[in-house]
Amino acid sequence: MSNITIGISDLNVARPPDILVTYALGSCVGICLYDAVARVAGLSHVLLPTSSQMPGNNTPMKFADTAIPMLMVKMQAMGARPNQLRAKIAGGAQMFAASQNACANSIASIVAAIKVCKLSKPASAFLLAAHLTNRLASAQKVSTAGASVAIFWLK
Amino acid sequence: MALYDYSELNTLHVDMLREIANIGTGNAATSLAAMLGRAINIQVPKVSFLDYQNVTESLGGPETLMVGMMLTLERDVSGMMMFLMKEFAHMVLNGLLGQSFASFTEVDEMGLSAMQEIANIMAGSYVNAISQITGLTIAISPPDVNIDMIGALLSVPAIHFANISDKVIFIEDEFGGDAAKTDEKSNILLIPDVDSLERILERLGASI
To answer: Which of B65, B107, B155 is facing A95, going by the closest CB pair?
Structure first.
């Protein structure tokens, strides 16, 4: 069993018993796709929802709308089927009160991107923890936006 | 020739930026020392073109808990500035409020507000120094503070600059109470956007 670390604007796929992990999402978003039948998982750590603002970009793993199809191609090469995939997403925290809130945008766009990919019906995108940092609610607490996301499953 | 991205800077440019950072940090550290009534050491600044992965690694790994204070620069220079502190933050709070916190989870609203004020004063001194040398008008936003993993804190500039480049210029300074204690190491990150960087260098006489 090995841990496969996904960096920032990075993605990878794995089979049991390997573990995919990404650290400290913050305002970034982690997208986990899992085919429980084929037992193939993928994890992507994206920064931005769409690549439209950066024409001619050569970093598809940075944007949700290009990273998800790329991840799905990799998973299908390992035997996953789009209609068996379940998606979970986490992250998109507003880290600082005044910083531009790219995250709400990001979560909505990512859910849209997952729907476009026609995953299992109805689109099973679970919003795990958007806006993990709610400074108003817990100003005194250390925020947990940095929480790592790991996907794993039993043998 | 206009800069397309940060990687086109030569060694002369990097030296100029290092000097700017040195002066900025010197001023910021002086302000902090005056507030706390104790000596603050600073190191020679580093100018690096890093992807975010490498920045978090160089600051102790993505899950290192730090106090982060962020503010944005506006007017002639736009970009972001971040102050990152570990244990040093406790010392700063103790010096300012006469109150000690056992851990970051116990820092209260007054403590967070004090950290914001620290960032405000330090950033003001830093930016004033750059402004005087370059003749550029630079305004700073009120700072925001958060205590979180370094990777999460740095995701904010990462996202802000993601459309421009995969690498970002980090003009990084180290300061702290006792240089021998690694826990007291703190960092100032200055992350200008490409246009602003060009403007600063032009004002300093560098041809780009």
So the answer is: B155
Residue-wise pLDDT tens digits, A30-69? 888 888 899 999 999 888 877 776 666 667 888 888 888 8
**Alpha-carbon distance B6 to B198, whole Å?**
10
Number of Cβ within 10 Å of residue B155's Cβ equals 33
Size of interface A-B (CB pairs under 8 A): 112
The dihedral built from the CA positions of residue B4, A25, A8 and A90, taken in this order, carries a sign that is: negative
Name the more confident of A106 and A149.
A106
Q: Tell me the helix, strand and coil percentages in chain A, rounded to 5.
A: 25, 30, 50
Asked if A103 is an active-site residue, the reply is no
Distance in angstroms (rounded) separating the CA atoms of residues A37 and A43:
17
CA dist A91 and A116 (Å) reads 20
Give yes or no for residue A148 having a pLDDT over 60. no
Distance CA A153, CA A41 (A): 10
CB contact at 8 A, B208 and B3: yes
Question: Tell me, what amino acid is at B92?
Answer: V
In chain A, which residue's Cα lies nearest the Cα of B80? A99
Q: pTM for this structure?
A: 0.78
